[in-house]
Structure formats: C-alpha cells, structure tokens
Amino acid sequence: MTAWTLTEWEWAELPLSPADVLEAQTHLGSALSVEASVGGFRLRAQGVAGMVALPGGTLQVRPKVPALNLLALLDYAAREVAWGEDVVGAGEAEELLSLLGALYVRRVERLARGGWVRGYREEEAERTALRGRWLVGRDVARPPTHRHLLSCRFDEFTTDVAPNRVLLAALQVLERSGLFGSHTAAHARSLTSTLAEVQPLAEVRAAVKVLGSDRRFAAYGPAVGLARLILENAGMQAAPGHHPLSSFVVRLAPLFEAAVTRALAKVAGARGLTCHAQRPLSLDAEGQLTVIPDIVIEHGEARLVIDAKYKLPAEGMPPAEDFQQLVTYLACLNTRRGVLVLPAPGALPEETTLHLRTFGRPSEVRIVKVPLGGRASKVGAALESAAERLISWLHGAGPPGGSSSQPVCLSDRLGRTTPASRSW
Asked: Which class for 396: exposed (0-12), middle (13-18), buried (19 or more C-beta within 10 A)?
C-alpha cells in the first residue's frame, strides 16, 4: 500500500483517488482542505496530526511543531508534569505516534514496577457465608431451592479500579495497532499481562475523579493523561476486541487552548487576579444568544479577554474572523483590551499590538505567538512567560519587553487601514 505524507498547514499535491479523499475527510472533517488538481488533489491539514487509513494506502499528517514538544504541551495542560527530553530517549525527528506510544508504555512500566495501586470497589455476589451487607429483600423473594445462598453487597479491595482500567484500555489500543511501532506493541502486550484481574474500560472521568480524591494514585497522573489522549483520539476503535487500530488522529487545538488556560490561571492566581475559562457571555438582553471566550482575566474593573487559536498562518496574521470574534467579546464585556494567542514553530516569542476602532471606540488587540519550537523542556516556561507579560499589560505596566508597541496595519485582505488604527 502507498504511504502519503502531509505536513500540517502546508499544501501538497497527492495522487489520491476520490475514495481516498472521501475517507480522509471522514476522519479529519473541516481540518482538511481539498482542491482538485491535474495530478489528483491538493490537500492541507490544519490543527491535526496522526495517521489515517485510506482505501489506497495511508495518510500521515505531521505536525508543524516538533512532536516531542506537543507531548510536553499535553503534559503541561494536564498536570504540569516536570518535563525532560530524556523521558522518551528520542530526538525531535521522531514521529508523533511512535513518541506517544514510547512515552506511554514507559510511564505505565514505571507504575507497574512500583506495584499497582488497589482500591475499594462495591460488588454484589451470592455467597454461602455472609460478607458485608445482607440484601434481605432479594433473598426473601427467591425460591426455597436457592435459599442456601446469601445475596451480599461488599467492598472488594482490588486492582480492578478506574485508573487501572483506563491504563489497560489504552495499552490494548497500542497492542492491537501497528501505528505506534512493533516495539511499543510488544511492550504494551507485556504490560497488559500484569493487569490480568482488570477490565479494560475507558472510564476516563471516573479515573480522573479517583486521582483527585485518593492520594495513593497521585503518581498515576502523567500516565492517565496520555491514556486519555490515546483513548479519545482512537475513538470507536478503542472498543474492546481483536480488530486492529487503523487510524489515529490527534486534535491539536484543544491541547493548545488547555495549556494556555492553565498557564494564565496559574499566573493570575499567583497575582491575586480572577481567571474565568469558557464563561458564557450574553449578546442580547434576554440571554438567548451567547458567546464563549476562552479566557477572561479580571482585576477590579479591568478585564483582559484572551482567545487561544492553534493556527500557523503562512502570512503571519490571523484571519479576519478571529479579530471579529475577539472584538465581539470586548463589546460584551465593555472592555478595550484583547489578545489572540497563537503558537510559533520557532524558539523565540513574537508579539504585535494593533490599535483598532471597534463599535465606534478604540481598542487594543495584542497578537502573542508562544514559541513551541526549541527544547521540549522549555514549553511550559514559554507559556508562563507569555502569561506574565499579558498580566503585566492588564496592570497597565506598559508594553512587555520584546514586543512591538507600535500600531501595525492588518493585511490587505482585511481592507484598507490607516497607519494608526483600523475601523470595524
């Protein structure tokens, strides 16, 4: 079978059949742009990475940002795991799925070596001797031939608890699939054998709840975070069975938004500011129309609206609809400062301030590009550094160091602009 490769945010002409394109669109949806061409089709994927099985071969979508850095971004968004590039023992040139699989089995292996944590789970069973609570009403209704057994409800101290179930379910995804590499599949198979008493169920919410309430499972956090990514992006193919996993697609926008939100919440909390994430705002007096900005930082009467977008536009400027969305948030909150946070594939931050006129009043919009290139261990620091500068801006401390404090024109496709402002 033929293997085709796309790099995120870049157009490529591929000799695909209409059936191949239809299958790719089924898996990638609006993240895949398609144009007919002489040699087949021109395709561009944005905000996704992974592998898709097509009728005529496989389509691999490589992220623009180094794969190792994306995993560091995931860990930061989940639990602020202390990150070092030696956790995988691989360089940035490795593919995303092989890195993901290698990192996951390594974390699960570390837990297995320390001994699986057990927990109490409520069970019901018929027993010859009473254990726990006797379900009298159930036994009274039974025929005499069965009254030698007692219906009992009791707590079983077992490894078959939600965190272990989630880890096993993700291990089985890796075991059945060739997408993560043969070595990872064999390693996952070996670890699966250590959880023989556990049912493989994708009870992610239940596992997260246990992690938050039982300190004995504190070490499970990093592994459960990766298991959640594997199970959610494997979709229906993560269901128990012997069928192989043929496609695996990671949606990058939610990861980036979650990491930006965590960084801003952490910095705002340290400064005594209020951070609202995904809080609905009403567009009308009746509250029938709402919009939901990613983040709103409040300090007294001052507000800063922040929208995180996992976009890497080739021309450097976000599309017009992103600005229109942000200025709508500003109008709803009666504030004048907003931020678009984007990723930057390099190792240096980029910032620009635009002076706009929105709904008849001046506003400032800052475009902040967080560097996700460079060393993976620095991703969290880059996010928090950007958050610090934005909080300082809300405090009115002036333009942050290293940013452009001069107004700039929007791109020509947004219409005519003046050197100092743009009217909306």
From this structure: exposed
Do the beta carbons of residue 368 and residue 390 sit within 8 Å? yes
What is the rounded distance in angstroms from the CA atom of residue 86 to the CA atom of residue 254? Answer: 26
Is 372 contained in some domain? yes
What is the 3-state secondary structure of 330-378? Answer: HHHHCCCEEEEEEEECCCCCEEEEEEEEECCEEEEEEEEEEECCCCHHH
Of 332, 331, 326, 338, give the one whose Cα is nearest residue 297. Answer: 338
**Percent of the chain, pLDDT > 90?**
40
- For residues 187-216, give the mean pLDDT: 92
Q: Are residues 183 and 321 in the same domain?
A: no
Please indicate, yes or no, if residue 71 is contained in any of the structural domains. no
- Determine the structural domain holding residue 6 and report its residue range: 2-63+91-115+168-246
The 10s digit of each residue's pLDDT in 101-133 is 999 999 999 999 999 999 888 888 888 888 888
The set of residues, in sequence order, having a beta carbon less than 8 Å from that of 150 and lying 6+ positions away, is: 126, 127, 128, 129, 130, 134, 139
Is 68 inside a domain boundary? no
pLDDT at site 245:
54
**Whether residues 419 and 333 fall in one domain:** yes
228 lies in the same domain as 103: yes
Q: Find tokens 């895949």 and name the residue.
A: 32
Please tell me whether residue 107 adopts helix, strand or coil conformation: helix
Percent of all residues in the chain with a pLDDT value above 70, rounded to a whole number:
85
Return the higher-pLDDT residue of 238 and 142.
Answer: 142
Rounded distance between C-alpha atoms, residue 301 and residue 299, angstroms: 6
Residue 415 is encoded by which pair of tokens? 């219409």
Tokens 């567009």 — which residue? 283
Picking from 158, 182, 217, the residue at the C-terminal end of a domain is 158
Angle at 337 between CA 261 and CA 269, to 5 degrees: 35
Nearest residue to 165 (alpha-carbon basis) of 112, 237, 216, 227: 227
Over the stretch 254-306, which tens digit does the pLDDT of each residue have?
Answer: 999 999 999 999 999 999 999 999 888 877 777 778 888 999 999 888 899 99
pLDDT digits (tens, 9 = 90+) for 344-378: 988 888 899 998 876 677 889 999 999 998 888 88
Task: With CA atoms as reference, report the closest residue to 230 among 363, 102, 120, 347.
Answer: 102
Q: Are 347 and 306 found together in one domain?
A: yes
